[in-house]
Design goal:
Layout lengths: L3 H17 L20 E5 L4 E3 L7 E13 L2 E6 L4 E3 L5 E8 L10 H13 L6 E7 L7 H14 L5 E7 H4 L12 E5 L7 H9 L12 E5 L12 E5 L6 H11 L5
Parallel strand pairs: 1-3, 1-11, 2-5, 3-6, 6-7, 7-8, 8-9, 10-11
Antiparallel strand pairs: 3-4
Helix pairs in contact: 2-3
Length: 262
Amino acid sequence: MIPAGRRRRGILACVLAAVLLGVAPPSAAVPRHATAQLPPVMLWAWEYPQDLRLADPARVGVAYLGTTVALVGADVRVFPRRQPLRVAPGAALVAVARVEIPRGTKAALSGSQLARTSRLAVALARRPGVVGVQLDFDAPLSARPFYRRLLARVRAELPDSVALSMTALASWAMGDAWLEGLPVDAAVPMLFGMGADGARIRAEISRGADFTPALARGNVGVSLDEPWPPRTSGRRIWIFVHGPWTPARLERALAGSGQVSP
């Protein structure tokens, strides 16, 4: 056991060295942005002309598709957002980077692909009004190590003031441990478009089962085009809709989420 006096001198020496090298000691680290600062309802605004100026920014934020990245072979194909997005002044924005391996293709999942995809995601944080970046990648099992490294790199390169979240297939959040320990502030389980797993997952949720990873329990993703499962109370709701948001769709979304109409 090291004597207390020597241990204190060692700590002071480490702090002094950190200062001299221009590196902040651990105690001086800036706390990361908490997703709790986001409004209780987030609307996914996909690649359509979107006018969400009617949404009250005190209650509703917007997670908009900022860019799509397709990994094909050794290539990185980039499709930036082309449709206009209008929001109320002061609206909290989360910029989404959609990552895809197109059907019928394979991806090298190389270091250069990881580096470029990370740069594209981090660049979204520099857009006006953006308080968070979200990655949306339905990664197959073989791509999970790549995805974990990508999330770690994006988190390391983002400012501490910007939240990092990810969408999660519902099956990832129900009994699958791979989400544990990922370097994100939150995962959003998507309880829609669940395919073959849908019936089982809905049955488990109806019986009272909760999402397995702690980082998936504060948020839930639903679609305006499908019935909402009961596992939404007390969580931030992320709402998807096919096509553009309209005043009628916004009113339906807020009514379903328990919020009053805009």
